[in-house]
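--- STAGE predict ---
source: upstream dedup step, 1 unique chain passed
mode: sequence only
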Amino acid sequence: MAFKLKRGDREVLWPVLITQSRDDGSGGLEKSRDVKVRYRVLTDTEVKEFFARPDVERVQIVNDLLEKHIVGWEGIVDEDTNEPIPFNLEMLRTALDQIPIQNALLAGLLDCSRGAERKN
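--- STAGE serialize ---
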């Protein structure tokens, strides 16, 4: 079977493990939750440009990068109703405002762009 080269943007549905801090004063972590995120995969040039920046600049552009490359999700539900939260820019920005979620989503983008297998 021949290798098929896709031209243009390539999207993948990628598993992301999100762990948040407990809010009960214990200082512990909540159970990690698996979600699936649909990413527009970074090109080699985009990865090189991202890592060529100084750390301070990288921190400043993370949300812009994620907003550009996250195009959907599955498995994210409302805390009160337990109903699925539809993907949209406003909800993505709400999620990105929480550092553990932002870190997990960035790791997922970099992993899927490199073709790495997710570590358990």
